[in-house]
């Protein structure tokens, strides 16, 4: 029996295969824990136009409701509250007449940006969304105590995605004792909480025992083909591969709420900031593609915010023929140039690149 009380059967025994390039001590549950080890010198000095994953941006329908949820339920703190409008932002987002309220929230060292399109409103997340649909994206939040965090979320009546917290068995010596749970915010966005026991993950996650919710470890996205996605995130933007695995089994099924799941998982890091995790569903291959008419104001259209050399990124993206949302780098500066660029990866997930 695992910690959640589920008995494993021999026919559905968990398996976690694949090297971590000797930089991390754990794999499993749809998570590459390489994302939680300190950045190495080679990662911090990685060539490429992207230097930092700065934040993750999530469209919301009702800003006050979402701020209350993330601050009161998950322990985030409000850092800024601004509005964006005008020609530059219309071209950046690819939405004519856009007026966007952006609230930046902090949790530990990491940032989450909530974006409400005051005008024009986008479409809601499809009510029948599954974890293997290719518009799926989540953030993974580290907690100091899984039992307390789960009890807290239950008391707050959050919507479950997982059956309950999934504990990786001790038969996996590297990742045994690590637990995870999927749930949803008021707009239906997927979120995950993770707990690392002593000796697992980045040491910084062991230093905040006085707080229940500690910070953002990574953002995960579903992709069709890992190699095609690596062509974008690794070869074009310059992120470094930190680890890879192939996961299946009862814990994985109950975590993702997808029966018969087999996942190829690849972790990527910039020099600083949260990681990016690629989730390729080898089975079942029933996930639906990102809608071809997805707009920035649609609630499923997250974007990962990265800083670096926008001019170099623009050249590399054009050379590889990736899709643009903005027509090119947009100068949003007033007294001095400040360029931003919004593009989509091979599956339609958005990246906002900014000069810094």
Q: Terminal Cα separation, in Å?
A: 50 Å
* Topology as a string of helices (H) and strands (E): EEEHEHEHEEEHEEEEEHEHEEEHEEEE
In the CATH hierarchy, what is the class? Alpha Beta
Residues in β-strands, percent: 35-45%
Rounded mean pLDDT score? 86
Fraction in helix: 10-25%
Structural class computed from helices and strand pairing: alpha+beta
Largest sheet: 10 strands, mixed
As a whole number of angstroms, the C-alpha radius of gyration is 19 Å
Low-confidence stretches: 1-46
Instruction: Please tally the β strands and state the result.
Output: 21
CATH topology name, in short, is 2,3-Dihydroxybiphenyl 1,2-Dioxygenase, domain 1
| SS summary, helix count | 7
Supply the number of structural domains. 1
CATH architecture verdict:
Roll
CATH homologous superfamily assignment: 2,3-Dihydroxybiphenyl 1,2-Dioxygenase, domain 1
Inertia-based shape: globular
């Amino acid at each position: 029996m695992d910690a959640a009380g589920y008995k494993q059967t021999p026919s559905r025994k968990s398996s976690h295969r694949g090297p971590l390039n000797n930089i991390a001590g754990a794999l499993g549950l749809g998570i590459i824990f390489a994302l939680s080890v300190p950045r190495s010198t080679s990662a911090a000095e990685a060539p490429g136009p992207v230097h930092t994953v700065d934040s993750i941006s999530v469209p919301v329908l009702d800003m006050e409701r979402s701020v209350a949820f993330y601050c009161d339920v998950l322990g985030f703190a409000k850092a800024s509250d601004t509005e964006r409008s005008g020609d530059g932002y219309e071209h950046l987002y690819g939405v004519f007449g856009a007026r966007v309220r952006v609230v930046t929230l902090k949790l530990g060292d990491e940032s989450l940006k909530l974006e409400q399109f005051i005008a024009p409103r986008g479409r809601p997340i499809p009510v029948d969304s599954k974890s293997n649909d290719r518009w799926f994206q989540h953030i993974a939040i580290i907690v100091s105590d899984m039992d307390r965090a789960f009890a807290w979320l239950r008391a707050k009546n959050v919507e479950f995605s997982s059956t309950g917290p999934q504990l990786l068995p001790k038969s996996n010596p590297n990742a045994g004792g690590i637990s995870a749970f999927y749930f949803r915010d008021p707009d239906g966005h997927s979120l995950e909480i993770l707990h690392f026991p002593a000796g697992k993950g980045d040491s910084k996650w062991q230093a905040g025992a006085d707080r229940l919710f500690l910070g953002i470890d990574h953002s995960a996205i579903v992709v069709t083909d890992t190699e095609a996605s690596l062509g974008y995130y690794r070869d074009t933007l310059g992120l470094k591969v930190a680890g890879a695995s192939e996961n299946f089994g009862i814990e994985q099924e109950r975590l993702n709420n997808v029966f018969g799941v087999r996942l190829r998982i690849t972790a990527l890091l910039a020099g600083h900031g949260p990681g990016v995790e690629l989730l390729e569903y080898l089975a079942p291959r029933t996930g639906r593609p990102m809608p071809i008419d997805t707009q920035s104001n649609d609630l499923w259209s997250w974007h990962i915010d990265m800083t670096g050399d926008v001019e170099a990124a623009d050249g590399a993206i054009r050379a590889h023929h990736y899709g643009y949302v903005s027509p090119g780098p947009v100068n949003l500066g007033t007294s001095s140039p400040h360029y931003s660029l919004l593009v989509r990866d091979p599956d339609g997930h958005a990246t906002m690149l900014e000069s810094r």
